């Protein structure tokens, strides 16, 4: 796996690693597939986590551990979407808005989780370069993936909040390709949010009796 951590090329004075590039390109594909509500979003997400896990394992234990959690949530998301995909006319999952109880639960979990993970990172400095932002991004990513697995439109909002911290943090830590990809994430998130939002309105419209199917 040492080859994954070698330099691929230099962009704007930033050294781009193979692991950073491959893992984040797969992450970008994952987001695009999520926009299309494709079941393939989860296997690709798992593969992205596997590539980054291999790159980090052995020298960045905390980062490798985070990718292991991401892979576990990807398996959960695949199971959820595979179970629910037949609820939509096109065979894909049907987006929905979270209830206020679900929103409160996710916000609370994000807040408590960020504090707990940040304190863990501070207690073991080798696990993270920058404990608080890193914990925020990690927990925010898990919350966003959970909301996506549960087909909630709010998962797009969660990704936007992650992007606000993820872009500067990745550039600051030398992961320039991740920073560039997060900028593209932002654009995809806005488009995906609009598409899922419109689909919730379409799916909620009543079908008139006698109207063609």
Keywords summarizing the entry:
single chain, 213 residues, mainly alpha, two-stranded antiparallel sheet, 7 helices, globular, disordered C terminus, transmembrane, membrane, NMN_transpt_PnuC, cell membrane, Nicotinamide riboside transporter PnuC
Characterise the protein shown here.
The chain is mostly helical and 213 residues long. Helix content is 70%, strand content 4%. It has seven helices and two strands; from the N terminus they run ββααααααα. The protein has helices at 18-35, 41-56, 61-84, 100-123, 131-149, 154-172, 176-204, and strands at residues 7-11, 14-17. It has a two-stranded antiparallel sheet with strand order 1-2. The chain is globular.
Please render the helix and strand layout as text.
Blueprint lengths: L6 E5 L2 E4 H18 L5 H16 L4 H24 L15 H24 L7 H19 L4 H19 L3 H29 L9
Antiparallel strand pairs: 1-2
Helix pairs in contact: 1-2, 1-7, 2-3, 3-5, 4-5, 5-6, 6-7
Strand order of the largest sheet: 1-2
Over all CA atoms, what is the radius of gyration? 18 Å
Poorly predicted regions are: 205-213
This entry's quaternary arrangement is single chain
Organism: Streptomyces cellulosae
Family: Belongs to the nicotinamide ribonucleoside (NR) uptake permease (TC 4.B.1) family.
Subcellular location: Cell membrane
Protein name: Nicotinamide riboside transporter PnuC
Short structural summary:
This protein is mainly alpha-helical and 213 residues long.
